[in-house]
Amino acid sequence: MSLIFNKKYKLHASENVEEFLKALGVSLEDRNLCHSAIPVVELTKKEDGKLVLSSTSDKKDFSIEFYLNEEFVEETLYDHKVTSLFTQDGNKLVVVQKSDNYNDVTIVREFNPDELKITLTIDGITCYRIYKPVD
Fold it and tell me: Which of 37, 81, 124, 130 could form a disulfide with 57 if both were Cys (CB 3.0 to 4.6 A apart)?
């Protein structure tokens, strides 16, 4: 199975988000914003092979562009500067984010026709976010 492009997924359920965000040092205000947002996520691919991962909600929109297997400096949704490396493992899009301010973060996005499962891990704390396709 491979990545799924041009399909929108809407947040359906989350688990352990608060502990994960605290471990990242995310402010209380931004944690509250995260809990109230219901994002829609989409992965697209440009003609030059660059991937675009976008998240839209009524609270905040976010988009990153990257090539697989090429490190780049990214500003995260919570304004942290990190060095990111995206790789692909079948239907999984995996990113490792390195920062001087906290330990490495690993984010695995598993694309399936009926679900997008995102697993986020830092310091042994794991958070899950389940998205369902938008009709």
Answer: 37
CATH 2.40.128.20 fits 8-133, yes or no: yes
Of these ranges, 13-27, 53-67, 118-132, the one predicted with the greatest mean pLDDT is: 118-132
Average pLDDT (75-82) is 81
Q: How many Å apart are CA 66 and CA 69, to the nearest integer?
A: 9
* 25, amino acid identity: G
Which single residue is written with the structure tokens 């994960």?
A: 20
- pLDDT averaged over the chain? 92
Please, are residues 110 and 117 in contact by the beta-carbon 8 Å criterion?
A: yes
d(CA 113, CA 67): 23
- Spatial CB neighbours of 3, under 8 Å, sequence gap ≥ 6: 43, 88, 91, 93, 111
Structure tokens at 104: 């490495």
List Cα–Cα distances, 58 to 40, 65, 72, 93, in angstroms.
Answer: 10, 21, 28, 25
Q: Residue 11: which of 117, 135, 93, 122 has the closest Cα?
A: 117
> What residue segments make up the domains of the chain, in order of their start?
8-133
Q: Length of the chain, please?
A: 135
